[in-house]
Structure formats: structure tokens, C-alpha cells
Amino acid sequence: MHVSSGRWLLGLGLALLTALLWGILPVKLKQVLQVMDPVTVTWYRLLVSGLLLFIWLKASRGLPSFKPLGKTGKGLVVMAVLGLVGNYVLYLVGLKLLSPGTTQLLIQTGPIMLLIASIFVFKERFTLGQGMGLLIMLAGFVLFFNERLAELFSSLGSYTVGVLVILLASLVWTFYGLSQKQLLTVWDSRQVMMVIYLFCALLITPWAHPLQVLQLDTVQGLLLFACCLNTLVAYGAFAEALVHWEASRISATLALTPLITLACVAVAAWLWPDHVQGEQLNLLGYGGAVLVVTGSAFTALVPSLMTGWRARNARLSNGKLHG
Question: What pLDDT does residue 306 have?
Fold first, then answer.
């Protein structure tokens, strides 16, 4: 069983770096999508990330072997590939229809869907505290969409379609998450991601248009390259954070990602108003975003807090018995 190093300040810093990188990602992608289609952007991100991981693992003699997988393991690879490529493409389709802040907030439903699915697949526990966190999140979403609730439930306009597409992206990501969780019993996380990235890129190659990259201006080209590197750097920071800090606290820190996105959009809209459009939210909407983040963080922290509470009570009880 993994035990963190206890260097929690380093772990916190790395988790915040991961949240920052994930937070600014949709702002960068939004600019690239003005020229390139979602499938081609996804193809570049997956191919570059997969090749860089391949070079890294090749140099360190850590390339994975498919022999230990067996028939079931290979089926899991297929499910993970379909789940991740579906998530990447649907996320970008939704991002074309929605603002970065709305997209990033909705994608928070992915870990919650994975949590619920894990209850049935892996027989994991779902506590009352996690249920409270989920209710807080739902209340936050209601407040966030307070100005557009009628539109969401009464028509199938581009905004409603965008919301549904992002929710579908979260759903298919759940299948990827479940598959990856099982594959990690055979490969390490870098090997899993390399295989999945390269197979995903191969799968969507017939629908990609690589020459679209020539239509990007210098800034958009740099943003595309930054998006390709974002996954690797953010993942590296996340993986290193797990060495030094508890996973539940890292997950709670990463729940800040939507707020970082909203802040980045506000700053970018102020600095470059001709290129970036600000979020159209009232005060209730921003309050709802905070509630979604609070609910997500609460859901992540509850198991750890309950374990600590039980351990403390057990120590107190033992102290009383011995006293």
C-alpha cells in the first residue's frame, strides 16, 4: 500500500500546478477551435502526447508488454481507447458551443459518474457524506444555470446541445476511468496512457485533417503545441503530487479547476477583448460555481475524513481502556 512522503507543501504545490494547467486548457483550446475541427485537434494532442511518452519509456526501457493482459485485458484497452477518444472529441464539440467556464464546470460530473459506477462495478462504499457532497453539487448547478434553466428544459438550442454533449463526454470518460483502473493492475500509469493515446490517435486518423495546422497563425500554433504538452506536464505534476500527498486531498484541490478557468477567462477577456469573450454570469451563477466546487471537494474528502475520524476515536477508546 502506497504511503505519501509527508511533504504535503510540495504535494499541494504540484496539485495546484495541475489545477492551473487544466484550468487554462479550455481557454487555449477555444482559440485553436476557431480554425481546426475537434477531431483534428484531438488527433494532434493524442499523437504528440503518445509519441513523447513512447520516447520516454523507450529510453528508460519501460515499454509495456501485451502478454500479461490476456483476452480480458485487451478488451479493457479497447474500452479505454473508445472511452477516452469519445471524451476528447465530445469535450471539444461541447467547447465549440459553450464557454470555457461552463464546459469545465460541467466536466466535473465525470468523477462523480465514475464514483457512482465504481459502487456497482468495484463494490465501493458510498457514504452519507458523499451523498451530501453530491446534493451540494446539484444545487450549485441549478444556481449556475439559473438564467438559462428555461432554455435548457424547453428547447434544443445550441446551448442545450452543448450541455448534453459535455455530459455525454463525462459519461464516456467513466468507461475509460473504469478500464484504466483495472489496467493499472498490470501496467503503470505511463504505460497505460502511452498505449491508450497512440491507439486513440490511430483510431481517429481517417477523420483527421493534419494540414489544417497550416491555417493557424503563430499564436494559435503555439497554443496548439501548448495544449499537446499540457496533458503530459499536468499528468506528471499530478503523478508526483500523489507521491507526497493523500489522493483525496489532491482530488479536492483539483476541484478548484473550474474556478481557475473562470478567472482565466475573465483576465483574458480583459487583456484581449477582441479574441476572448467573458463569461455571461450573474452573481447567483458565480455562487453556483463555488457550490459545485465545494460539493466536488467535499465528496473527495469525505472518505479520508471519515477514516481519520474513526482512527482518532479508536485511539481515544484504547486510551480510556488502558487508563
Answer: 59
* Cβ neighbours, 10 Å, residue 11: 22
Q: How far apart are CA 147 and CA 87, in angstroms?
A: 27
Measured on CA atoms in the order 101, 215, 203, 180, is the torsion positive or negative? negative
Phi and psi at 228, nearest 5°, equal -65, -40
- Could you tell me which residues come within 8 angstroms of residue 266 by beta carbon, excluding any fewer than 6 positions away? 278, 279
CA-CA distance, 81 to 86, in Å (whole number)? 8
Mean pLDDT estimate for the chain = 84
Helix (H, G, I), strand (E, B) or coil at 194: helix
- Please write the tens of the pLDDT for every residue from 257-275: 888 998 988 888 888 888 7
CB 138 within 8 A of CB 81: no
List the grid coordinates of 260: 481557475
Joined together, the cell numbers standing for residue 85 give 477518444
Q: Does the structure show a pLDDT above 50 at 278? A: yes
Q: Per-residue pLDDT averaged across 3-24, rounded?
A: 80
